[in-house]
């Protein structure tokens, strides 16, 4: 798995922009760059330059000048990958990017595979495995909470907690294994009382980390919210109203895709993902038959349901009753799913009308998406469904399902150790369970690893990272 | 127009990628970066660092760490803009990009307008105006020819040619204006024979540059080609076959938009732009009535027309005659437009059939888009319509319509000077025409400029450049 060749990839997003960065890493990175680079000042070769310096010049292919560029040089081990790294900052045309990459390929580079730069950083000991995984999370983080967790994990918060427990457990494991060497003398090097305490503590921490996964998962992937309701009650307008603040920030930068934003918004730093409301918009049958398959499918996928109605409809008495029946249907089918009953276009009603509807449907929340009335209150209600306690307390939160899986397995083994200790299990059998627990700890940080596992993890990275 | 504030913008394409680069320029760039940056090694401030050095650390907002970044420092005048410049290379998530930019804005930066970095480079004398314009061309160049011309222009090839003529003309202007001061003494400081020679030479160069615009325009914008023909004759398959080589290169990098590539391909380094073939695909009437408005509209826009037919149809005798009539219709309407008659699916015919069709329509080109037969020959034919002589001779080529406009006006004035010299026009009147010519030369390189002009030019840049 250790690579000795030199890899190259575009590190910035593809497409045209002011500049693009092409990254080389490996033992020949500087030599290959030197073969294609001519300094503007005609100074010494890049190989003779200090690490962390920048040089203005041209990328040349024989007599042809491809671009005027800035070249950054990083000498091993002081680079992201721990190898020699060269970053070429060129003009951001697709054509130039391609030409420079093709040139480096001809000069002996190989196209990097997804995540290969970070894989090398891991293999060279610059990051542990959970930190490496956090890099991918960091890049895909799109709100404050997921960013904060990825940042914490990348800086080693999670690994160091795991590593500390692992070390303590390893100490005891060694002592117990030592006992086995002196089996005939019946000595106990490992204090069983202290060991029980440690196992209890590890079990407690593991359970906390495992519990945090539910929150972590929500934070990483966003909370799925279904907005259901008849056509033209204002679902899109509500989404736009919720989006308002976010979009203003985003619009500073041209080219940000709006479609994606319309589906995912951040409230109080937590991502809320709105499920395929376009699909719901098409169905005409919500009122007559809330039980239709499509709507229930949306509700199935959602963690929170916003049931939106048009206030004007409440002026018709018969509507209130059919609406109440629909609410009951949803509640009966999903007794545990938070349901927000929302009436849009509140500005079309007078005080008395509002009061009389509230007496019929007490939990109803009135708003006007168009005029921005009651929208902030809806945001607060959505946020109230998230347990942000752990986030506020700056606790370690598990967001990665691979880690979650290893933690579950480690807990399983630790519980076996606990019962073994209680039932006076012999040291040799105890040692096996401890080693198994240690194995699963090691999986998380990467002390225990194999090519398949690494292949799977880094395949999810983008090329260039 | 001179700015004293510090600007910030994302310099890399928007979207998620491995890394993103945020660029600051202005007198407070380093101080603002220092206020948000904490070195990992806890070394001295960025303001105390040397120019062209890179520093690993964290972007911090109070107690909150936004990202681990590399910061590059460029001290004025040794930077792109000629001002102090800081480039922050952060993890490429949209969220992180936004957070860092927002932080810099709060610390006193202003969001850069389109092309403002390059505008500052121009105002600080790092580039002349035609070089600055070449930066935008370079970024949007998507084939070898347009890239080569933009590169030449950015490196000053075009400006230096103009500047040299301008200087010589300026010398004569000064001499002639000097004569005016001694008007009563009737002296001639400016040698009229030499001056006539110079004016002839300038006129010759201007005409060559003006003529080059036709080629330049084709190279910059690509050659519009209409592929017309019945549905299912294989227009898309042909386009894919033409694309083949390009796409293999492009596919190394994930996320490159395919739609755009399908419409523009590069043959022998020249861009060929295929006009809305989807639209033609929809019309069912090509064979019955080639005269329909839509098809002629496509042909109107094209510089070359590929008229594609299905070889199988030629097995029907009546088709050959109707096809010949259609060819005549196009030729009559567009006698000067190159028309390529192409028959796809040649593999479905035998030698005799091919021979007999050729005897009816001698100029027909047979190919099989699916099997790749005859496709390279079609590329050669397309390429033969481009006058690449100037390109091969490495002559200066004008691609910018603003330059073209100024060159036309300059030529107009130079012709006036020429006639003035021939008809013995008095020095004071001659001087006026010379000054006008000089004015138009100056417009190109930016000696003569105004805010509106600069505003127009740089508004076409992307933000961050």
TrEMBL record, chains A, B:
Superkingdom in the source lineage: Bacteria
The gene coding this protein: mnmE
Amino-acid positions noted as binding (6S)-5-formyl-5,6,7,8-tetrahydrofolate in the UniProt annotation, renumbered to this chain: 23, 87, 126, 465
Family annotation (InterPro entries): G_TrmE (IPR031168), GTP-bd (IPR006073), GTP-bd_TrmE_N (IPR018948), GTPase_MnmE (IPR004520), MnmE_dom2 (IPR027368), MnmE_helical (IPR025867), P-loop_NTPase (IPR027417), Small_GTP-bd (IPR005225)
Signal peptide, first to last residue: none
Binding partners and assembly: Homodimer. Heterotetramer of two MnmE and two MnmG subunits.
The entry's keywords: Cytoplasm, GTP-binding, Hydrolase, Magnesium, Metal-binding, Nucleotide-binding, Potassium, tRNA processing
Gene3D superfamilies linked: P-loop containing nucleotide triphosphate hydrolases, Probable tRNA modification gtpase trme, domain 1, tRNA modification GTPase MnmE domain 2
Annotated GO MF terms: hydrolase activity
Protein name (Swiss-Prot/TrEMBL): tRNA modification GTPase MnmE
Residues where K(+) binds: 232, 251, 253, 256
Protein family (similarity comment): Belongs to the TRAFAC class TrmE-Era-EngA-EngB-Septin-like GTPase superfamily. TrmE GTPase family.
Statement: the UniProt record of this protein carries the keyword Metal-binding: yes
Cofactor binding mode and count: Binds 1 potassium ion per subunit.
Role noted for this protein: Exhibits a very high intrinsic GTPase hydrolysis rate. Involved in the addition of a carboxymethylaminomethyl (cmnm) group at the wobble position (U34) of certain tRNAs, forming tRNA-cmnm(5)s(2)U34.
EC number of the protein: 3.6.-.-
Binding locations of GTP: 232-237, 251-257, 276-279
Residue span(s) of domain TrmE-type G: 222-387
Cofactor(s) the protein requires to work: K(+)
């Amino acid at each position: 798995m250790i690579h000795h060749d030199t890899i190259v990839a575009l590190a910035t997003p593809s497409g045209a922009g002011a500049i693009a960065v092409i990254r080389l890493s490996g033992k020949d990175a500087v030599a290959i760059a030197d073969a294609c680079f001519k300094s503007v000042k005609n100074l010494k070769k890049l190989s003779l330059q200090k690490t962390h310096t920048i040089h203005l010049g041209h990328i040349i292919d024989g007599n042809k000048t491809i671009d005027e560029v800035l070249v950054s040089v990083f000498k091993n081990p002081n680079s992201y990958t721990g190898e020699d790294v060269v970053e070429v900052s060129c003009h951001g045309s697709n054509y130039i990017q391609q030409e420079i990459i093709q040139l480096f390929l001809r000069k002996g580079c190989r196209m990097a595979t997804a995540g290969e730069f970070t894989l090398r950083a891991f293999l060279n000991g610059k990051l542990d495995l959970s930190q490496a995984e956090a890099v991918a999370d960091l890049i895909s983080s799109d709100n404050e909470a997921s960013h904060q967790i990825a940042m914490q994990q990348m800086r080693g918060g999670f690994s160091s907690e795991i590593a500390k427990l692992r070390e303590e457990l390893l100490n005891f494991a060694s002592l117990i294994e030592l006992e086995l060497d002196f089996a005939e003398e019946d000595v106990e090097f490992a204090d069983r009382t202290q060991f029980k305490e440690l196992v209890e503590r590890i079990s407690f921490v593991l359970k906390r980390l495992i519990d945090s996964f539910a929150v972590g998962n929500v934070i990483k992937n966003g909370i799925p919210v279904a907005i259901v309701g008849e056509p033209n009650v204002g679902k899109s307008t509500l989404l736009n109203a919720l989006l308002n603040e976010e979009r203003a920030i985003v619009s500073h930068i041209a080219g940000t895709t709006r479609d994606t934003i319309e589906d995912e918004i951040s409230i109080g730093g937590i991502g809320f993902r709105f499920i395929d409301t376009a699909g719901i918009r098409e169905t005409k049958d919500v009122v007559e038959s809330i039980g239709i398959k499509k709507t229930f499918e949306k509700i199935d996928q959602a963690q929170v349901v916003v049931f939106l109605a048009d206030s004007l409809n409440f002026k018709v008495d018969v509507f209130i009753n059919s609406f109440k029946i629909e609410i009951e249907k949803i509640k009966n089918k999903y007794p545990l799913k938070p349901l927000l009953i929302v009436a849009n276009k509140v500005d079309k009603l007078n005080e008395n009308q509002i009061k009389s509807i509230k007496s019929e449907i007490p939990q109803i929340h009135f708003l006007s998406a168009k005029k921005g009335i009651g929208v902030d209150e809806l945001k607060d209600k959505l946020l109230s469904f998230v347990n942000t306690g752990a986030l506020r307390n700056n606790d370690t939160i598990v967001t990665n399902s691979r880690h979650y899986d290893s933690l579950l397995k480690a807990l399983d083994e630790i519980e076996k150790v606990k019962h073994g200790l209680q039932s006076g299990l012999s040291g040799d059998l105890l040692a096996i369970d401890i080693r198994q627990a240690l194995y699963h700890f090691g999986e998380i940080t990467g002390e225990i690893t194999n090519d398949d596992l690494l292949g799977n993890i880094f395949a999810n990275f983008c090329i260039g990272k």
